[in-house]
Amino acid sequence: MFNATLPIVFLCTLAPAAFAQEPSFTTGPAETTNPGLIDCGNRSRISPVGEIAADDGTVWTVPAATNFETAPKATDLYNECGGIQLGSLSDLDLADVPLMDAGGDEEFTAYIFADNYFEFYVNGELLAVDPVPFTPFNSNVIRFSADRPVTIAVMMVDWEENLGLGSEANRSASHHPGDGGLVAHIQDSSGETVALTDSSWRAQTFYTAPLKDRTCLVVSGPLRDSSTCDQEGVNDATGFSAAHWAIPETWMMPSFDDSIWPYASTYTNETVGVDNKKSFTNFVDVFDTPDADADFIWSTNLVLDNLVLLRKTIE
């Protein structure tokens, strides 16, 4: 269904049930608590936020509880809402990008294109968040200082218009599931590559929607597999469900054990659909660097998995 590559690594030291965490299910749309985090005109989707109660009584924030309103925003490479639209990486002066302190002396630069929203942690510190939660699509750069090993942790959110139902108006359907994706290239102060988004990252799903039939979702050990679930857009989502899992409080810390999380799945530029987006194509020299070509990464379901946590340690 997607051009994804999955690393052939299996965790079998313990029975799968030892890792399983059953989802908390909700049904129908959420109640809007914020009509939109930003609105920059006709080309933007306004990124609403809502709440919904699950069958088990748990109240969930959808599409995610974020730090958007309080955290520093990542520096723009290309942002139609922010007014910065660089034509290429050669137009960037890194000296103009703030150096954020993650507790160390070595300097790094992260170049990021996210569909849709990201929060970027280094060694447990939240350094910056995406300045555009939904659309128009944008790209960013973050400079930081840290000591190795460096733990990169990224919260990714595929935003939604139909709160609690993981969908938006698109392709002639009022409820069409969107897709996600993260591509990142991290360099040291000399410009040498130290990390790329690829299948060596860990990726875990925490919100899956819409589910037309809950039984399509398979939870087996740490795997939360919605690959057989229907992804077609519809105009009537009556009775549709969503699956939620609680995020561990220390998920971004270097001490957090992500060894049972699945490895990230990789996706092509064509699958994510970025070949017509200047926020990506203007910077292919860093996102698609020869001999250092970063992959788009996500969970095993690029479309239905809407809240995905990603981790990678740079030794």
Mean pLDDT: 93
The backbone outline, from C-alpha atoms, is globular
Report the span from N to C terminus.
Answer: 35 Å
Helix-strand topology string: EEEEEEEEEEEEEEEEEEEEEEHHHEEEE
What fraction of the residues are assigned to beta strands by DSSP?
35-45%
Overall helicity: under 10%
The Rg value, from CA coordinates, equals 19 Å
**Main structural class:** mainly beta
**What count of domains describes the coordinates?**
1
Number of separate helices = 3
The low-confidence runs, each spanning 5 or more residues with pLDDT under 50, are: 1-18
- Across the major sheet, the strand order is 2-21-18-26-13-10-11
Number of beta strands:
26
Largest sheet: 7 strands, antiparallel
Assembly type of the chains comes to single chain
What does this structure look like?
With 315 residues, the chain is mostly beta strands. The chain has one domain. The protein contains three helices and 26 strands. The strands form seven sheets. Strands 2-21-18-26-13-10-11 form a seven-stranded antiparallel β-sheet, with no helix packed on it. Strands 6, 7, 8, 9, 12, 16 and 17 form a seven-stranded mixed β-sheet that branches. Residues 1-18 have low confidence and may be disordered.
